Amino acid sequence: MRFPLFSFSLLALLTLHAAPALSQEMPACNGSIAVVRVSEIKPGGTMKGFLAAVAAHQAWYRANGIKDNEIVASRVIVKDEKTGQFKYSDTQVLTYHINPPDTEKLPHRGDAAWNAYVKMYRDNSDLKSEYLTCMPKHSEK
To answer: Which residue in 20, 47, 36, 8 sits closest to 105, CA to CA?
Structure first.
């Protein structure tokens, strides 16, 4: 009897980790909730493939009626050790999922299109860390 309970608990834990349940009580945020993910392009993967996954990820939300979120990629800038010049990393990238919807609002999660963009991410990158943050409001002057 312990094994099914353990399996259920593990599955529940993984589900919560995969997509934060934003309907839970959150601290005050004077801005937007954002999921920040740090990814590394893996051997055999490409930045182009990763950026295509980001576009497919955003497209999945739009196709499923979610219009108030945004997913953007931000390439890390590194200093070239040989030249001293700054350049974009070929292997490090951050993504920001701004205003992610509650998982309860995703009835088609796990459909073919969802699985396709997840596969694109997995084929091109490894997720190194993930943070749930409050992105402060800013004004452009």
So the answer is: 20
- 9 in a domain, yes or no? no
* Largest Cα–Cα separation, the chain: 62
- pTM, rounded to two decimals: 0.78
Q: Does 2 reside within a domain?
A: no
Q: What CATH number is attached to the domain comprising 59?
A: 3.30.70
CA distances from 10 to 3, 84, 115, 121 (A): 10, 47, 21, 23
63-104 pLDDT, tens digit each:
999 999 999 999 999 999 999 999 999 999 999 999 999 888
Contact between 55 and 49 (Cβ < 8 Å): no
Buried (b) or exposed (e) across 46-82, using 16+ Cβ within 10 A? ebeebbebbebbbebbeebeeeebebebebeeeeeee
Whether residue 7 is contained in a domain is answered as: no
